[in-house]
Amino acid sequence: MDNVLIVDDNKLAIEIIDDLLTTWGYRTKVCSNSLEVFNCVLDFKPDVILLDVMLPGMNGFAICNKLKTFQETQKIPIIILTALNDMENRIHAFNMGADAFLSKPIKYEELKNRVEWAVRYKKSLEVMEPEDAVVKTLLNILQAMNYQTYLHSVRLSHYCESVGRILYVIDEDMNQLVVGGFLHDIGKIVTDDPQGHIDAGLKIISGLNMHTWLDRYVRSHHEKLNGEGYPDRLISIEMPLNLRILVTVNRFMELAEECGDDNEAFSTLKEECKKGYWSTEVLDALKQVIRDADFKKRIVSM
Question: Over the range 206-228, which residues count as b (16 or more CB within 10 Å of their CB) and which as e?
């Protein structure tokens, strides 16, 4: 039986959600005090946390961010429950580490689907350790051989994950996007040559089981949505959402690293989007991600 922790101070909402989850076969525990959340999590060991934002004391965003900081709790999926339904708060929730977002009043079928997804997601994380070890090893090699590319890849992967959450990339696709972001430039261990590093990267990952889907990110991260990229001159309809996210974020990173200014990079990227090179949808989401990250830094420094 899977465990669901409900963190909310609204007694009526708790009763309804608790009854539904119990009926659906989950074991539940309720925590209505933000000060008790961390002890509840450690004692109950939930598979999913349903976390309200408007709590007395520490709010749900801060709780979520803290839970995602510690190794013991960072892999527990957190579904944010809130009456705040605007895009800015949704993005803020994801940047604090939330895995999903449900607006109040809760739609029961949506709640059921999200909890089922979260349980599957947690179980998939639990069996990913061998894959995580491979990724970590390759990143360690990249860090030692080409430190600037390592920094680029880590930052790019984090941006791709945040953008992916905004654009509703979930489950296995999200894990592939994150790993693809980390390893897209792995061929630069061997060479910085534009075509050569793609070929080298494909050769490096060819013996891995995950090469069946990782090849796409290594091979195609220099494609453009209008068919003017390389090596295959793909166009937008041939590129899944994950790849459109990767190539657009990668271009932003290139521009930002060249000029040293995010605003100037965004200005150039906007003009290139108008020419059909990159995804405007990804551009808009990335702007929100970086704005929210800046906001988070200001809050932490206060």
Answer: eeeebeeebbbbbbbbbbbbeee
129-301: which CATH topology? Hypothetical protein af1432 (1.10.3210)
Residue 74 corresponds to which amino acid?
A: Q
Q: Which two tokens stand for residue 265?
A: 């990079």
- Residue 239 per-residue DSSP state: S
Q: Is the bond preceding 46 in cis, omega lying within 30 degrees of 0?
A: no
pLDDT score of 290? 87
DSSP 106: P
Residue 130 confidence (pLDDT) = 64
- Per domain, the residue ranges of the chain are 3-126, 129-301
How many CA atoms within 13 Å lie on the side-chain side of 153?
Answer: 27
Mean pLDDT for 260-268 is 93
**Amino acid, res. 141:** I
pTM to 2 decimal places = 0.61
Helix ranges, 105-146 (H): 108-126, 129-145
- Six-digit token string for 96: 């604090």
pLDDT per residue as tens digits for the range 196-217: 999 999 999 998 878 889 999 9
3-class state of residue 164 by DSSP: helix
**For residues 35 and 78, is the Cβ–Cβ distance under 8 A?**
no
Q: Which fold is adopted by the domain 3-126? A: Rossmann fold (3.40.50)
- Going by C-alpha positions, the residue among 233, 129, 240 that lies closest to residue 180 is 240
